[in-house]
Amino acid sequence: MKIVYFGYDLFADCLERLPDLGVEVMAIYSFPSDGVCDFHDRVQAFALRWGIPFHVGPVTGVELNALAAAGCEMMVSAGYAYRIPVEQTNLRGINLHPALLPLGRGPWPMPVTILRGLTESGVTLHKLAPRFDEGDILAQAAFPLTPQEDLQILTGKLQAAAVSLLEAFFADPASAWAKARPQGKGEYWPEPDEREMTISPNMTVAEADRILRAFRGVGCYFAREDGERIPVREGMVGTAIPAAAEGVYTLLDGYLEILK
C-alpha cells in the first residue's frame, strides 16, 4: 500500500515500522519543531534515508489529490499539528491519538491523564474526519497506569501500543475499516496552561508530585513567594530544594535544574 504520512517524533516508531509492513511512504508532512516538546528529527531522518519528500507545514487539498493521482491510497496521521483537509480529497485516512477516545480529545492529553489521576490510558486508531479526533474508531489499545506514572513512562507505553495498533491495521485494513464504530459524545481536554504547570508553596507534597510527574522531561514551574514563576526542568518531591532557589518552600528533591 502507498501512503502519505503526517506526524512528528512522538510516534516515529510507527513510521519506521511501515516498510516492514509492506507500506510505501510517498511523502511526509510535519510541523515546526519547538525543541522542547515537539521534535521531527527522526521523521526527517527517515525521509532522508528513504528519499521521501519531506514538508514542514499544512498540507493542501491540491497536494493530497496530486498524491492520489500518483498512486497514493491512504493518509496516515500520527500527531500532526494541522488539520488535514479530508473533505477536499477522496483519500481515506487514519489517525493515531494518545488517549482512549472519545475521552481525551485535544492536542496534548498525556499530561492531563496524569493530572486527573486516571488509572488507565491507551491509544486510539480512528478514521480521519473534518474535526480533530472525532472520526470513527478502528481499534484501541488500553493499559493500566501506576500511582507513580510520569509523562516519560506514559509516553513509552503509548509508543509501544501505537506500533501494535498500526501493525494489526495493516494486516487487514479492509476488515478494520468495515468494523469501525462511531465515537459518540466525547470530552475535549484543552492543553494545560502555565497555571496548571505550576507548583506553589501552599500545595501538598502529593499535589506537587503529580504536577512534576505530569510534565517530567518537559518541564514545569515553581512559584516563589514573591509571585515569580521559576522554570523547572526536572524534579522529584521530597526533602530539599537546591540553594539556587533559596526562599522557596521545601517541596522538591532529587535533581532539580532551575533554568536561568
Mind explaining what this structure looks like?
- This protein has helices at residues 12-17, 41-50, 61-69, 109-115, 151-171, 173-178, 205-214, and strands spanning 2-7, 24-30, 54-56, 74-78, 92-97, 103-105, 120-127, 137-144, 187-188, 198-199, 220-223, 229-232, 236-237, 252-253.
- It is an alpha/beta fold and 260 residues long.
- It has two domains: 2-188, Rossmann fold (3-Layer(aba) Sandwich); 195-253, no CATH class.
- The strands form four sheets. Strands 3-2-1-4-5-7-8 form a seven-stranded mixed sheet, sandwiched between helices.
- A hairpin with a 5-residue loop joins strand 11 and strand 12 (229-232).
- The chain starts with a strand and ends in a 7-residue tail after the last strand.
- The relative contact order is 0.12.
Strand-residue proportion: 15-25%
Structural class: alpha/beta
**How many β-strand runs?**
14
CATH superfamily of the largest domain: Formyl transferase, N-terminal domain
Radius of gyration: 20 Å
Distance between the termini: 50 Å
CATH topology of the largest domain: Rossmann fold
Return the average pLDDT rounded to an integer. 89
Largest sheet: 7 strands, mixed
Write down the CATH class of the largest domain: Alpha Beta
Poorly predicted ranges: 237-251, 253-260
Q: Which strand order do you get reading across the main beta sheet? A: 3-2-1-4-5-7-8
- Please report the number of helical segments: 7
Assign an overall shape. globular
Tell me which CATH architecture of the largest domain applies here: 3-Layer(aba) Sandwich
